[in-house]
Amino acid sequence: MSVTRERILKDMRRGIVEIHLNDKDESLILKATLVNIVMPPDKIPEANYNGPLFGTNLVACFDTEKKEWLTFNIEHVSDYKGFVKLL
């Protein structure tokens, strides 16, 4: 997949995006964001987990369907659909 980590992070800071992940035998369609207004108050982070020390291939995001934080490896992105909703 040719989408970059920086592009996904930039888009998630502006809205909800759809990301397709494949890892071995599992596949997942993720609707994710970094916008606080869609997160329950107890799920809003106090720190930026996507800073330069987090890792060059990892992305932390909020799953808007499961209402939980998760981390994925950018190498597992099989398709990037982009914005589902701008916020």
Descriptive account of the structure:
- With 87 residues, this protein is mainly beta.
- The protein has one domain (5-86): Roll (SH3 type barrels).
- 9% of the residues lie in helices and 45% in strands.
- It has one helix spanning 5-12, and strands spanning 15-23, 26-33, 58-63, 68-73, 77-86.
- The chain has a 5-stranded antiparallel beta sheet, with helices on one face.
- The radius of gyration is 12 Å and the shape is globular.
- The model has no long low-confidence stretch (mean pLDDT 89).
How would the global form be characterised? Answer: globular
Helix count, DSSP H or I runs of 4 or more residues: 1
Amount of beta strand: 35-45%
Order of helices and strands: HEEEEE
Fill in the CATH topology.
Answer: SH3 type barrels
What is the tally of beta strands?
5
- Total domain count: 1
Q: Using the CA coordinates, give the radius of gyration.
A: 12 Å
What is the terminal separation in angstroms?
25 Å
Compute the average pLDDT: 89
Main beta sheet: 5 strands, antiparallel
Strand pairing plus helix content: what structural class?
Answer: mainly beta
Low-confidence stretches: none
| Annotated CATH architecture | Roll
CATH class, named: Mainly Beta
Q: Looking across the biggest beta sheet, what order are the strands in?
A: 4-3-2-1-5
